[in-house]
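Summary for the steering committee. The consortium agreed at its last meeting that each partner would contribute one worked example illustrating the joint modelling workflow. Our contribution is presented below. We chose a case with several input lines so that the handling of multiple components could be demonstrated. No manual editing was applied between input and output; the record is shown as generated.
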Amino acid sequence: MRRYTTLFFFLALVIGFVLFKVKYEVVEIEEKISQILRQMKRERETIHILKAEWSHLNEPQRLQKLAEKFLDIRPMKAEQIATMHHNFTEQDPFRCLIPRAHLASMKGEE
Amino acid sequence: MSQRKLYVPQGFHGTAQWHEVRSLRQVLDVAKTRLLVVCGVFMLVFLVIIGRLIDVSLLRRGAEEGLVQARSLHGVGFRADIVDRNGELLATSLTTSSLYANAQVVLNAKEAAQKLTEVLPELNYSQILQRLESGKVFVWLARHLPPQKQAEVMRLGIPGIYFQQDERRVYPHGELFSHVLGFTNIDNQGLSGVERKFNESLLSKTESLRLSLDIRAQHVLRDEILAGIEKFKAQGGAGLVMNVQTGEVIAMVSLPDFDPNQVGKMGPQKEALFNRITLGAYEMGSSFKIFNTALYLESDESNLTKKFDVSGPLRLGRFKITDFHPAHYPLTVAEIFTESSNIGSAKMAMQMGSSLQKAFFERLGFFRPSSLELPEVGSPLFPKKWSESTTITTSYGYGISISPLQLVTAIAGVVNNGVMRQPTLVKANAFKTEGGVRVVSEKTSETMRKLMYMIVSQGRGKKAKVKGYEVGGKTGTANQLSGRSYQKGSNMTSFVGAFPMSRPQYIVLIMVDRPQAIKETYGFNAAGWNAAPIAGKVIARIAPLLHVIPISEGKIEPTEKSMLIPASTSLRREH
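What follows is the complete predicted structure of the assembly.
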């Protein structure tokens, strides 16, 4: 009888110890989570600012000036555009599967 | 067991009652039962806890993440972004810090003001000192400080001053979108443009507002109009690009314009805030012949070949209506349009009658302001009494003042197979295709498109021609009102062109305010010399951007040669 008592007594002690350990670990993890969330918030704000700056750098006037200065490209002319007149509705010689919806839209292209 | 009596207290009564029990064994039994009951209760509780433990750790792995998501902070500003139709950022809010003070907590106001003006030199010392000594619980000291400045001010360690998270509206593209976007005040309330019209939804929703504008087309339009203003030494200009099938405004420019980032520092340049496209009311001049001719054709399609005598000027009270280039033989309805004859248009209108004309203008939306999503939309000006002189003058575009937006919307309706769509600044849902008003029949639309195509391919709009895109349009030269009479020599030229004419997708308007005659235009300043070439340049640049597939010219058959005056080689073709 005495043995069982001491056994369960020590068991209770051990469980109590484990309980407190787990509790403190949880508190630590929660602290880490809020820290990471704060970091994420800061990063999101930085991304937001960078997006605005990226948009500013993509100002068409600026790009036009840079393109004229450094690149050999010129505005596109109508003569440079060609259309592909492929008849997709016939037997498919390339053996690729074209979805029905795409075929429908191709008919309206002309 | 002896028969000893055992006294066991029973309950908590005032006077203890001692009951007799039979034996020790019974007592022990009772005690054992009680112990078992207590043990059982504890076991139950522990079972519940163990069950919950297993449940949380093994069965529901990761369910806690949902909680984390909900708690995560957004970190972005309170006012939603505005983007163009392709997602390009047009307006956004950046988080800043604003400095305020609790004057009651501040110890040494002079020292604080001194330190602050050292770190933030743009502040006024006496103003800051006054605020710090005011005794108020909340006074603003400086708004929208960058994080660097915030750190420096913190390091000063002045008691009684605090930072509040604020946000500032930033327009990355400056003047490119001034009138359309508008701007906000320092407390992020929209004051004009889209910022004002959509103020509530920008403050409440988190997703960006997607406009129908295309930044590339906007840039091309502004670039070319600016170049044109410089070339023709004009006072200003305006332009509009619209999708005729959906009514979406692709680009809208009014010059002079302003930088919405610098509105606070603008001062006397208030003229730049005026959006000519939506607020301006102008007598459009010859562009109205589109409506006059269309209405005439509505009644009878064979009217295209009907002839009118335009040899002598038309007399109306004390006014005399003349043509720029009077023809000395009768002109057909088609020729009246392509030669832009005022006398011919007036005679056509007189034959139709004022009620028919008035009803048509009503259907085209000329008697009420446009429904565009901007607060700066002006009301048109028209006479309350529609007299005979009104009928005559409005047939060639005088006597009624509408905004350029209304003009383009109506012409778009005429060329879009006769269906007029409401203009909108918000990107249209690709699946919504209803909601248009029929203003003319399909046959009339086709005929008008052919006539407008003639003007560009052979007539006064030649300089707007772009190979492969079937541009059709109409020039117009309007005089500006100065008091009760017209300002001599001062005019506003316009060109409205749609393309590709066989199946129009887009319409472009160019307006030039008081262009000068220059050497290159041989001393002429009519629309065909300035507005039309600007429009041609714009169309050439935006057509590939807007995915308009070039069509080999010739798909639209020009109307029979017999109806037209043979193209003269004279250089003095204007209007």
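Residues 68-76, 560-575 of chain B have pLDDT under 50 and may be disordered. Chain B has 17 helices and 18 strands.
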